[in-house]
Amino acid sequence: MSRGFHTGEFVREHARGLRARPWRALLIALCAALIGAAVPLVSLIETGGLRESWEQQRAAGRFVQVIRAGTIEGFPVTFCENIARTEGVIAAGAILHREQIQLATFPGQNRELLRVSPGMIAIAWPGLAIPGSGIVAGKDLATQTGLVPDTTVNLTRAGTSETRDIVSIAGERSRVDGLNTALLEPDVRADQYTRECYVEMQPGAAGAVIPTLTEAVPPTFKATPAPYLKKSALVMDPEKQLPQRASAWGWALGAGILFLLLGVLWWSGRAEMALYRAFGARPVQITLALAAEVIATVLVPVAIGASAVIAVAGFTGSIGTQEYLLAGADIARLLLALLPLPLLGAALAHAISPSAVFKGA
Amino acid sequence: MPVAVRDISVAFGERRVLTGFTAEFVEGSMTALRAPSGFGKSTLLAVIAGHQKPDAGTVAFTAADGTEHAPQISWIDQASPVFPHRTAAHNVAIGALSRGSTWEEALLIAAGHLERLGLEEVRDRLGKRLSGGERQRVAVARSMAAETPIILADEPTASLDAAARGLVIGALRAAADAGAIVIIATHDDIVAERADHIIRMDRLVPA
Q: What is the spatial distance between Cα B153 and Cα B186, in angstroms, rounded to a whole number?
């Protein structure tokens, strides 16, 4: 009298069947590994592209906001400096005073000396170290007058002459108009006023930072924030770009391909499934066997492929925390989407009658 | 667990193949269904196996305790399916697995049945590379290994040479002697000679 398959033995028997046709299992595993690698890779490439785009936009001043005072007197610069401590703000700075001077090395022509709050140096030239004292010269001015760093220059203003240290020459062009031909002198005095406060945010931090800008300066000064550069229709807000990135759907496409592949292969093997059913295999046993197949040939290769990409990207240092999180979320979605795969096999197992094998199934 | 077939009628369109067929098949017996083609031998086997729904009548499998339930049935015919990517030995071992054996036990059981059916030489040959006769004998060996209580065989010797035919008939006879119900639709006189009962369907049932 037949007692039927032992469930564990049937699962092992299914594995022997897979080993008997290794190309089939290898094909699935290869596809799964490629999809597992492709999902985070596409995500990393796209988010990396977005990061690069944001970097270019950042360099152009896309993430700079300007708080403009509504009065001729302006507002105390301390309000501007307080904003620099807000989370998501890279730098905040203001132009405090402008005056005309003449350089001894290039007499006869007026130059502009701007007293600025220290943060303005970083607003004008991102990455340039803010000097503790001394003057920073704009690129064009240094080229025209022969100024070089770590030298002393005589300058005349309002009829008096004085010497000042040139501590730095800006290597890049300024993001703020007019500064390439000027001298900038940091002024740390707190009792200064300004009519404009420049604030640079981190890409993607606009949602958190911009609301604080409207409250940063008391209403009596009638200050209003606005983007330094006019928004281009072609440049999307990074915060909107991330959720809308095309690679956010890579996991769904990958899962769909694997569902289709497994569905086709299981359907092509339905005659053998029917033969097992004819010999007493229960649908639940077939489902368990297919679940084991899914783990071995789909889930593990997906995890290996994804891990390999993450590891290589991490090793090459081309991946940031945000990219890790996005790629990890995409991989998790893919694995979760693949978990119901054995149910597809279960549906097939229930649909196939044991007698189907004798009808040419 | 006798098989009681009562008042079975099957028609394909206008053609009536079985009309009110009644019989009982008991354990430990080999029954030959004999008739010219078209008298419903294969159809009767299909009805018992559940592959064909009768227009009327019932098939009852009654256990010793009086309860009825569908037992596992082995089906052997000229196109017996095998696992194409598994060896002949594995195909037979799967039969033994289906009655709860471990794989190691199943391979030992398979070796015995392969020898009994003269298949030692093809034991490592893939199912898809077996000839029709070899596939048929592998299917018989697999049914023997499965020790199913009911074996239905539709012309099991039709494509076999004399030696192989003797081996298949011997295996089916041994299964019946071990307690199985063996029902064979056949034109083969030698099969009929080894059967315990012969049902002449052309005489019992008007075509």
A: 8
**Cβ atoms of residues A75 and A69 within 8 Å:** yes
What chain A residue is nearest to B50 in terms of C-alpha separation? A355
For A247, which DSSP code?
G
Tokens of residue A36, six digits: 């597992």
User: Do residues B57 and B21 make contact, with C-beta atoms less than 8 angstroms apart?
Assistant: yes
Task: Name residues whose C-beta falls within 8 Å of residue A164's C-beta, 6 or more positions apart in sequence.
Answer: A134, A135, A152, A153, A155, A185
Give the whole-angstrom CA distance, residue A223 versus residue A347: 66
Closest among A10, A21, A284 to B96, alpha carbons compared: A10
Residue B146 C-alpha, separation from nearest chain A C-alpha, in angstroms: 7
Contact list, A20 vs chain B (CB under 8 Å): 83, 85-86, 90
| ipTM score over 0.90, yes or no | no
Give dist(CA A310, CA A219) in Å, integer. 49
Picking from B51, B77, B90, the nearest residue to A355 by CB comes out as B51
State which residue of chain B sits closest to A23, comparing Cα positions: B85
Parts of chain A with a pLDDT under 70: 1-3, 231-240, 318, 354-361
For A101, other C-beta atoms within 10 Å of its C-beta total 18
Instruction: Dig out the tokens for A137 from the structure.
Output: 């010269």
- Taking contacts as CB-CB distances below 8 angstroms, the residues of chain B near A9 are 97, 101-103
Across the interface, of B72, B75, B94, the residue whose CB is closest to A13 is: B94
A275 vs B50: CB contact, 8 Å cut-off? no
Q: Do A3 and B100 lie within an 8 Å CB cutoff? A: yes
Collapsing DSSP to helix, strand or coil, B112 comes out as helix
Burial of residue B62, with CB atoms counted within 10 A of its CB: 0-12 exposed, 13-18 middle, 19 or more buried: middle
* Unique residue bearing structure tokens 């400096």: A81
Which distant-in-sequence residues (6+ apart) come within 8 Å of B80 by Cβ? B135, B136, B138, B139, B140
Strand, coil or helix: what is B12? Answer: strand
Task: Show me where the domains of chain A are located.
Answer: 7-54+242-359, 64-228
Residue A200 · residue A126 · CB < 8 Å: yes
Nearest CA-CA partner of B93 in B143, B133, B33, B137 = B143
- Looking at the complex, does the CB of residue A21 fall below 8 Å from at least one CB of chain B? yes
Q: How many CB pairs under 8 A join A and B?
A: 68
pLDDT digits (tens, 9 = 90+) for A288-335: 999 999 999 999 999 999 999 988 988 887 677 777 888 888 999 999
Disruptive mutation site among A7, A10, A13 for chain B (greatest number of B CBs within 10 Å): A13
Q: pLDDT tens-digit profile of B145-190?
A: 998 889 999 988 887 888 889 999 999 999 999 999 999 999 888 8
Nearest-by-Cβ selection for A2 from B49, B51, B148:
B148
Interface residue of B73, B90, B97 to substitute, partner A, most A CBs within 10 Å: B97
The closest of A348, A347, A334, A268 to A301, measured between CA atoms, is: A334
Give the burial class of B13: count Cβ atoms within 10 A of its Cβ; 0-12 exposed, 13-18 middle, 19 or more buried: exposed
A88 interface with B at CB cutoff 8 Å: no
Q: What is the pLDDT of residue B79?
A: 77
